[in-house]
Write a structure and sequence with these properties.
Distance between the termini: 66 Å
Strand order of the largest sheet: 1-2-5-12-6
Structural class: alpha+beta
Order of helices and strands: HEEEEEHHEHEEEEEE
CATH architecture of the largest domain: Alpha-Beta Complex
Number of strands: 12
CATH class of the largest domain: Alpha Beta
Number of domains: 2
Radius of gyration: 24 Å
Shape: globular
CATH superfamily of the largest domain: paralog of FGE (formylglycine-generating enzyme)
Strand content: 15-25%
CATH topology of the largest domain: paralog of FGE (formylglycine-generating enzyme)
């Protein structure tokens, strides 16, 4: 069939409009896919599927409920310290650990501002060393209260659609905590075999001959010191952090160790704090502490996991 020039012109115009519409639809679809992945950090569509929460490489970041998280991929590592590590303790004998699932861990310690947004009133009194401050770590929090924060945050984020049903916030296992702290290293700290008070907030003697820096003798705003290789701040110093495990003298090894139900008298806290020397801030250092007790230098950070 032969087309007139007028008909041919109209056909080309119509084809052009259809092409432009098709391109717009494709672009819109791509934007929606991207937003569903980075979702919460950009105020986009709620995250509703498990796959949308899986990270890629170590250190990938995610924001949910204004809390920044870094991805820790599944992997194996040696937990504890070698016999020749300076200032090691007998309960740090090394074990091999396999973590079969990746997880998100908060980039910073839980802050007073985050606590107040989720829970309301702070869990304990402020002190001269831990004054009020939205970006200061929350302290004077016992184990049950830290767990209550995790449960409430899970509930709030599921109600808002920001969290898939199969994921939850909780305290890290001791193995997850040390794996994240080490960030692929096998040295005494994530910065090497020394630790300066320019690298972490602690009071007193630097570890293993490192350069001395500021000795604040108080809490610092989270993120005031350099991050480790996976983007995590204050894994050494600033405030001790609760772990979900009960304390046992022998480190838990094997696959996905979790001593949450292995009842004992004390839970585990990790990381050292502003009132310590440098040596308790080592990656392998562990302290037992009765779960009902609290101090201004004990706080926590949350992990986001799919159990």
């Amino acid at each position: 069939m032969t087309l007139t020039r007028e008909t041919e012109s109209k056909r080309k115009a119509t084809d052009g409009k259809l092409c432009r519409v098709s391109r717009l639809i494709i672009v819109a679809a791509v934007v929606l896919v991207v937003e569903s992945y980075v979702g919460v950090s950009g105020g986009a569509e709620p995250l509703t599927s498990t796959s949308s929460l899986l990270g890629g490489k170590a250190g990938d970041e995610l924001i949910i409920w204004d809390i920044k998280f870094c991805w820790c991929p599944a992997g194996k590592f040696i937990m504890g310290s070698p016999r020749d590590e300076l200032e090691r303790r007998p309960d740090e004998d090394q074990v091999e650990v396999t973590l079969t699932k990746g997880f998100w861990i908060a980039k910073f310690e839980t802050t007073q501002g985050q606590w107040q947004r989720v829970m309301g009133e702070l869990p304990g009194p402020l002190t001269e060393q831990l004054p009020a401050g939205a970006e200061l770590p929350v302290g004077n929090v016992n184990f049950a209260e830290a767990e209550a924060f995790c449960r409430k945050l899970t509930e709030v984020c599921k109600q808002s659609g920001e969290l898939p049903k199969s994921w939850e916030f909780r305290l890290p296992t001791e193995a997850q905590w040390e794996y994240a702290c080490r960030a692929g290293t096998r040295t005494a700290t994530s910065f090497g075999d020394t630790l300066s008070s320019k690298q972490a907030n602690f009071k007193g003697k630097p570890y293993n001959g490192a350069e001395a820096g500021p000795s604040l003798g108080r809490a610092a705003k989270v993120g005031s010191y350099p991050p480790n290789a996976w983007g995590l701040h204050d894994m050494h110093g600033n405030t001790y952090e609760w772990c979900r495990d009960w304390y046992h003298p022998k480190l838990p090894g094997g696959t996905d160790p979790d001593l949450y139900l292995a009842t004992a008298s004390s839970r585990v806290r990790r990381g050292g704090c502003w009132m310590d020397d440098g040596w308790p801030c080592r990656s392998a250092f562990r302290v037992r502490f009765e779960p009902e007790r609290r101090y201004d230098h004990i706080g926590f950070r949350v992990v986001l996991v799919e159990p």
